[in-house]
Amino acid sequence: MSVTNHPPAAPDLPGLRARALNLRRTMLDMASGKGEGYIAQGLAIADMLAAIYFHELRYDPATPDWPDRDRFVLSTGHYSIAMYAVLAEAGYLPKDELPSYGLNGSRLPMSTFEDTPGVEMVGGSLGQGLGQAVGMALAMKIDKRGSRVFCEFSDGELQEGSTWEAAMSAATFRCDNLVVLIDCNGIQADGPVTVAIEPVKAKMEAFGWDSVEINGNDMGALIAALEGARAADGRPKAIVMRTTPGHGVPTLVARERAHFVRVDNTEWDSLKAELESEHA
Amino acid sequence: MPDQATKQGHTRGMGELIDIAGKTTELAPFGNALAELARERPEIVGLTADMGRYSDILPFRDAHPDRYFNVGMAEQNLIAMAAGLAKSGKIAYCTTYSVFITRRAYDFVAIACAHSMANVKIFAGMPGLVNGYGATHQATEDINMMRGIADLTIIEPCDARELKQVVRAVADIPGTVYVRNLRGKVPVELPSDYRFTFGKAQVLRRGNGRTGIISTGYMTARALDAARSTEGDGFDTGVLHLSTLKPFDTTGVLDFAKDYDRLVVAENHKTTGGLATMVTEALYDAGMVKPLTRIGLADSFFECGSQEYLEQKYEVDLPRFERVIRGAA
Question: The whole model's pTM is what?
Answer without folding.
Answer: 0.94
